[in-house]
Amino acid sequence: MSSSSSTPNSTTRFRDDLFCFYGDRMQVHTSWTNCNPGRRFMSCPNYGSNRRCRKFKFLDVELPNEYYKDLMFQNHMQLRKLERDNQLEHCKDYT
Ligand SMILES: [Zn+2]
């Protein structure tokens, strides 16, 4: 028998974060700004809309320095460019 120590409270605490004050389910996105490249965050689907919900939370820590941020951002832009080029050529093969 294995005696794995489970933490029952962590599940309920996480569920609190899944919904905003208005009861909307939070959505996970990845930020690809040059300030926070590749950084995941949760936000309300109404964030920035006229319902004025401002529930927003970063899931990942900030990258330690400008070098990493720049590297992540440049890699991402490169990848996006490649994906766009590929889609133009092989869009029929991938469906
Ligand atoms: Zn909301």
TrEMBL record:
Name of this chain's protein: Zinc finger GRF-type domain-containing protein
Species in which this protein is naturally found: Centaurea solstitialis (yellow star-thistle)
